[in-house]
Amino acid sequence: MALAELGLGPLGDSLEELRWTFESGKTRSISWRKAQLQALLNFLRDNEEQILEAIHEDVGKHRVEAFRDEVGVLIKSLTHNLDCLEKWVAPKKTKLPLAFFPATAELLPEPLGLVIIFSSWNFPMSLALEPLIGAISAGNTAVIKPSEISPTCSSFLATVIPRYLDNKAIKVIEGGAAIAAQLLEEKWDKIFFTGSPRVGRIVMSAAAKHLTPVTLELGGKCPVVLDTRFSSSEMEVVVKRIAWGKWGLCNGQSCIGVDYVLVEEKSAFTLIGLLKKAINKFYGKNTKECNDYVRIINEHHFERLHKLIRDPEVANSIVHGGSVDKEKLFIEPTILLNPPLESEIMTEEIFGPFLPIITLKNIQQSAGFIKSRPKPLALYVFTKDETLKKLMISQTSSGSITFNDVAFQFLSDSLPFGGVGQSGMGRYHGKFSFDEFTHEKAVLRRTLLLDLEPRYPPWNDFKLKFIRLLYKYDYFGLLLLLLGLKR
Amino acid sequence: MDISLIHINIMPYHASSLPLVKLVNNGKVCAPRIRNLLGDREASITPKQTHPTSLRFSWRISSSFSSSATESRPIMEDEMKKMERFDSDSAASLLKELRGTFASGKTKSYEWRVQQLKNMIKMIDDNERAIMEALQQDLAKPRFESFVSEISLTKAACNHALKELKHWMKPEKAKTAITTFPSSAEIVSEPFGIVLIISAWNYPFLLSLDPVVGAIAAGNSVVLKPSEISPATSSLLAKLLEDYLDSSAVRVVEGAVAETTALLEQKWDKILYTGNGKVGRIVMAAAAKHLTPVILELGGKSPVVVDSNVNLKVSARRIAAGKWGCNNGQACIAPDYIITTKAYAPTLIDGLKNILEEFFGKDPLESKDLSRIVNSNHFSRLAKLLDEDKVSGKIVHGGQRDETRLMIAPTILLDVPEDSLIMNEEIFGPLLPIITVDKVEDSFDIIKSRSKPLAAYLFTSSKKLEKEFVENISAGGMLINDTVVHLTNPSLPFGGVGESGIGSYHGKFSFDAFSHKKAVLYRSLYGDAPVRYPPYTPGKLRILRAILDGSIIGAILALIGFGKKKLE
């Protein structure tokens, strides 16, 4: 059912306007795209303080963290796209076999049309605007539906974005599940969704009705494989990075954050000791009062997380932390040692400050452990052993693998960011964002001057021989055949 | 069912495996032919390769079951019932087996992929005649056409993949920036896992194997479901793939809607479907349940715009070859309709008529060079398009048909109304409507008002018109001054946009279509910047700002305390 029929006249009209703008061809011009990217850059620079505040309001992120993971990253992407756009939009010439002579072929990137971006609350700015940068760069018109779970950022985007960007081509539509469901009834040329696999399935089913391609950025349990054959000073850096990857990225509420750690039995206690030290160094003795420590997004998620550790067997496995404060939506950094593998904490994505440590006899077993579970969005492997690196790359499957660090793959414009299997489909960042919102049109140009007779019926043996040689690119044979010298 | 021959294979080394049974009806293997129903593991090892001592029995049964086979009748019926139903359970056990193969890592090796591709080439070379015969049986496809558009193209795809595979499989180095310094990065292509390929009847050989080549090249396990509408090719594929390829990793499931449904219920790692938009939607919705990515190769009404300044003879020939010389219009990229100017239409029609006579003679229904309509359903669908009141008077050439032989002659129609059936569904047959406009540029609006086609063709000698056409019209692929041949070029992606499909393949694009591009980042433990870790301070913000801006000098300044911007 169209929005207009649902009594949502203004929304329906908005989409009409966006389609009309796309049809007008305006968004295809490079100058328009650049102007929009520049305007988005201005939006971020002019409103940095307000944006950092809005993020703090919704998610409780410290402004340095918010700058690092949201504003700063966006500025970096915008600068990159402004630099590269002209190169990306140029048609790509492709090679042709001589048999096609005279002809030229190219791949021409063209925008898909009207796209919608459903973003998520944990990185309320970057997950809404990073895909938008791709959509604009590729020349589409776009709707952003920010998550209603981060309402301050959502309404900030809805009020301030129109002051900077072309309102006839880019709109922010706010709302909850009901609006999202109505939007999904519409025909889009691309749907870009960041969120959970459960909603991802709903989005893709809705897209199927209109044959709309989808990009699904989902999550999953991202493991850390820790091979402890490091010197003690290296181990400190390693554990710091793991701790940061868990609690320093929106306090575990991040799709690429560390979910659990695989380590050899003999090293578990060293690891726990170092993790405690890192937590202390990051957040001090009293995490509850620490401004740098992010709270849980809302009561619903607090309850969900609290339930995970109320399972008695799981509770028994807690070796550090575990205290909660519902009033403040606070959950302490919590380490668990070998919680049951069939418990919910080990079957569902945690998306919060719990860090289960699973011990193995030897670290090579981690490949089998990961393979037997749904493919994660990211895999982090800490090791100096080149054989183990090779083994992990070839034996496991995940959206990405990062060696000796956490989450840094997200920062690289030259690496595709996206999942596989349960962790999603499609990819973005840098040129990949551009491609994700682009149709590469194959264009082959021929002339009418030269025509090969044997292409056409009525068929005979001569023509069959001719084509046989042509497919082998046997030009000498062709010549002989034409001269009547070949049997 | 009229059964004349049964093959039973027994694998002596597998106590758990039951005999596999093949029902052969008048020389054709009956669909569905899922021997997996009768045993869990049998087909994973082809007897010829690994079990020299396996036994193969064949015996004949008369249709009345009167002779020596009488006693086997009760078992037969029981087994037949099972075989007629390839259900979810059979599909699930098939997948389980293929998962086992994939998990063993065998399909990932370069050697395995190359061996399979080489085997496929051998399979094609050994069976060229049988393939042509099957296509003749299913579609009355002329041998020449079968060779040009099915056999050669499939072989070319294998050869191309063989030549390039090493290069394709190499991890792609990626640049790294100051933000992740010090580090190195690459993109590794890895197979998705188990892929399902559902193919179509119009090019039943090419559209089945071309994607299989990509799936194998990328290192996946594959299940191919050929179309039941071309049964001879379907059963030939089932036989050939089993004989030539590693059947622990590559399988054919024959069947129709029920079998396809059973397959679609399973969790695949990628699905490629070739066919129509209606089924495409069903496939994608089924894929959504398991979050499986899809490639949909659909069709649409591919237009041909003809300017009045062209070389008539060559243009008419190329249009006619694309329309009637490719399976008599039953091709997803065949020209669907023509748009030309009112003034030029009569000239063009004359040109087409002449060419048609040159191609197919005075009586095209008797021509050996013209494919027939695939079946009576499609014949009556096409007849209905022609018989519509507002359309039947518009025929300017052809129109002859012979229902008993399922032949329809090349037919040209002039100025059919926009709201007629023929202008609102993909024709997929030998009918070619011509729409006329005052100025050739007016064609753009007609094309743009419809859903995006798989291909768009333009014949012109005007560079300006060509430029405008390329810029303004959206289509899967575009070809200037010719039809169809862009399909044969492995350096161009083949696929649709909008209603004409999702995703693309051919050449390297096939490899990419069946590969997950895994981002791999190597970091070192040196140069660990405290700036990223809490506790957070204004100084850290300053440094981050500089690093993310990509300014090395700014970062150094901030590090030594010369940051310009004041904070907090």
TrEMBL record, chain A:
Catalytic activity annotation: an aldehyde + NAD(+) + H2O = a carboxylate + NADH + 2 H(+)
InterPro entries attached to this UniProt entry: Ald_DH/histidinol_DH (IPR016161), Ald_DH_C (IPR016163), Ald_DH_N (IPR016162), Aldehyde_DH_dom (IPR015590), Aldehyde_DH_NAD(P) (IPR012394)
Pfam families for this protein: Aldedh
Keyword annotations of the record: NAD, Oxidoreductase
Domain Aldehyde dehydrogenase as annotated: residue spans: 25-443
GO CC annotation, single: cytoplasm
Keyword Oxidoreductase included in the entry's annotation: yes
Residues at the catalytic site: 217, 255
GO molecular function: aldehyde dehydrogenase (NAD+) activity
UniProt key word Signal: no
GO biological process: aldehyde metabolic process; response to abscisic acid
Entry's family note: Belongs to the aldehyde dehydrogenase family.
Protein name in UniProt: Aldehyde dehydrogenase
Gene assigned in the entry: LOC104602015
Automatic annotation (TrEMBL), chain B:
GO molecular function: aldehyde dehydrogenase (NAD+) activity
Gene behind this protein: LOC104587549
Residue ranges that the Swiss-Prot or TrEMBL entry lists as coiled coil: none
One Pfam family linked to the record: Aldedh
PANTHER family the record matches: ALDEHYDE DEHYDROGENASE, ALDEHYDE DEHYDROGENASE TYPE III, ISOFORM Q
UniProt-listed InterPro entries: Ald_DH/histidinol_DH (IPR016161), Ald_DH_C (IPR016163), Ald_DH_CS_GLU (IPR029510), Ald_DH_N (IPR016162), Aldehyde_DH_dom (IPR015590), Aldehyde_DH_NAD(P) (IPR012394)
Membrane-spanning parts: 543-562
Catalytic activity: an aldehyde + NAD(+) + H2O = a carboxylate + NADH + 2 H(+)
Recorded family membership: Belongs to the aldehyde dehydrogenase family.
Keyword list, A-Z: Membrane, NAD, Oxidoreductase, Transmembrane, Transmembrane helix
The Aldehyde dehydrogenase domain, residue ranges: 69-520
Keyword Magnesium: no
Source organism per UniProt: Nelumbo nucifera (Sacred lotus)
The keyword Oxidoreductase is assigned to this record: yes
Protein name: aldehyde dehydrogenase (NAD(+))
Domain of life the protein comes from: Eukaryota
Lineage of source species: Eukaryota, Viridiplantae, Streptophyta, Embryophyta, Tracheophyta
